[in-house]
Backbone:
């Protein structure tokens, strides 16, 4: 029994140390920084204050916050509405096609979202591809100003995040026990009832996971807002970035980040509850 | 084919079109022999040639490759050991550890970026190569753990018991039975870490300094100045490299499963 100890010790020690030093400690420091005062020559001054949190409620910042929540919510909703039927259809495809079709979703999932955002800029710019097509089709008389608008930001985030919605949905839908649907049908349930009472509750963990993976990045992806939304501060991500880069107000940036973390905690909690419910409802 | 099937396939094609069309346009324009026009003016390698003639850009690309290689390697070592430990042992704080890994994976990049920035600032570490490396190892670890762990959980436990019965020590079991079976998953984890590291913008944005520039941040600052065919070419190269690594990773994961 002695011999097994070294590997166990090293393995657990390494991961434990890394997570403590580079995950727990930094987040603790963020919380501490968020309740300190802004420093003059150092980034923070060691005096307790809740001022940063109070300023998050300032109409100026509250506006950014609400805008950002709206953009992220719109993106998440669109991802879900487009992604759910897509993931469902994928699971209904012939088994020999599925790995290939799934790989085609995984490829954009792993490629750089910056590069993909840039591709969106090319499509949307005034002398860009979409305008050209609309002009050629005679649908518009002159090019539209597509870039630097809110819809452009939503389109960019949708484009960057759609695979993050599809993959968890696909995983949840694939696990779905077909016998439950057949049983419901035999018992006389209609399509709507089957979807509402069986498919939806059982895939709820996938839905929540997908929403988490699109909503949270949707609040933070400052480069999407920069490249597609123009110079305005649109997202919480831009707000946080500016506090650390130009405004040099670290406590305020830290407070905004704590807010995002709390939001993540709530979503994780929702995920936990939904997956517990789904597994309790499943067949043994 | 019934009308319903046709509608289903049309919908799939529509979404795939949305996912791939912008990328395709980007790639096509990187070969277009015209600086501003959208019209196809013939095929050219000029933009690629310009990239390779730029010594700064080459240095930046090498920086990125260096950080990606090192961070993927360290993250794979730590992550693989962690996955094996989570599978083999019961220990104090195990569910806390699993929870932390999950939360770390879900953490929005911007939150991780500023948390690490504050850590490095408190430690008075100058931002540059080392801080970037530490940050990249951190965000890579959970992905390695998940990739390797999902592979291990599909293992035949009898193999390990057989090794024990034949008198293997714990070390020998890990080295001669578990690790060889894990090679594909470890390889896939490494490749995925490498691509994550090559492509990361948000975390890197906060934790690197002017002394150490990397490719995604370079692209970001170039794009902010405007669209040029050179950026199309650079992005096409990035896409090509990522695509190749994903394909290899997928092949590794599919083999024998």
Residues:
């Amino acid at each position: 029994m002695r011999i097994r100890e070294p590997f166990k010790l090293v393995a657990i020690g390494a991961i434990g140390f890394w997570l403590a030093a580079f995950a727990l400690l930094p987040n603790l420091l963020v919380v501490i920084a968020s309740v300190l005062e802004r420093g003059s020559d150092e980034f923070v001054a060691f005096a307790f204050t809740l001022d940063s949190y109070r300023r998050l409620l300032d109409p100026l910042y509250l506006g950014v916050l609400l805008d950002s929540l709206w953009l992220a919510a719109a993106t998440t909703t669109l991802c879900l509405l487009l992604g759910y039927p897509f993931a469902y259809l994928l699971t209904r495809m012939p088994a020999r096609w599925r790995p290939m079709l799934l790989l085609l979703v995984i490829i954009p999932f792993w490629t750089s979202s910056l590069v993909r955002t840039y591709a969106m800029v090319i499509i949307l710019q005034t002398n860009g591809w979409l305008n050209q097509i609309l002009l050629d089709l005679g649908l518009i008389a002159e090019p539209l100003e597509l870039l630097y608008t809110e819809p452009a930001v939503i389109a960019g985030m949708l484009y960057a995040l759609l695979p993050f919605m599809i993959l968890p949905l696909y995983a949840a839908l694939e696990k779905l026990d077909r016998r439950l649907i057949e049983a419901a049908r035999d018992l006389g349930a209609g399509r709507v009832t089957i979807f509402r009472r069986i498919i939806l509750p059982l895939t709820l963990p996938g839905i929540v996971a997908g929403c988490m993976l699109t909503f949270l990045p949707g609040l933070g992806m400052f480069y999407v807002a920069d490249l597609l939304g123009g110079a305005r501060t649109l997202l919480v991500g831009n707000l946080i970035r500016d506090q650390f880069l130009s405004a040099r107000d670290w406590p305020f940036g830290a407070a905004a980040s704590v807010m995002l973390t709390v939001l993540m905690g709530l979503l994780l909690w929702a995920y936990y509850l939904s997956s517990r419910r789904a597994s309790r409802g499943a067949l043994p | 084919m019934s009308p319903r099937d046709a509608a289903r396939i049309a919908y799939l094609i529509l979404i795939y079109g949305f996912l791939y069309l912008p990328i395709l346009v980007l790639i096509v324009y990187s070969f277009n022999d015209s600086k501003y026009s959208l019209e196809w003016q013939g095929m050219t390698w000029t933009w690629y040639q310009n990239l390779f003639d730029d010594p700064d850009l080459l240095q930046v690309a090498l920086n990125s490759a260096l950080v990606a290689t090192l961070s993927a390697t360290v993250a794979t070592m730590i992550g693989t050991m962690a996955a094996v430990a989570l599978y083999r042992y019961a220990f104090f704080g195990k569910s806390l550890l699993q929870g932390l890994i999950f939360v770390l994976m879900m953490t929005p990049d911007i939150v991780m970026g500023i948390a690490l920035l504050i850590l490095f600032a408190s430690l008075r570490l100058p931002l540059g190569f080392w801080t970037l490396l530490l940050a990249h190892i951190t965000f890579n670890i959970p992905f390695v753990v998940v990739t390797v762990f999902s592979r291990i959980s599909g293992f035949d436990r009898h193999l390990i018991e057989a090794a024990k019965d034949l008198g293997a020590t714990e070390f020998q079991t890990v080295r001669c039975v578990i690790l060889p079976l894990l090679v594909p998953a470890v390889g896939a984890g490494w490749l995925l870490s490498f691509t994550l590291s090559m492509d990361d913008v948000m975390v890197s944005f906060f934790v690197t300094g002017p002394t150490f520039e990397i490719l995604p941040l370079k692209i970001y600052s170039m794009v902010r100045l405007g669209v040029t065919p050179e950026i199309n070419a650079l992005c096409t190269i990035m896409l090509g490299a990522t695509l190749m690594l994903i394909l290899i990773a997928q092949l590794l994961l599919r083999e024998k499963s």
The two ends of chain B are 33 Å apart (CA to CA). Residues 186 and 201 of chain B are 25 Å apart (CA to CA).
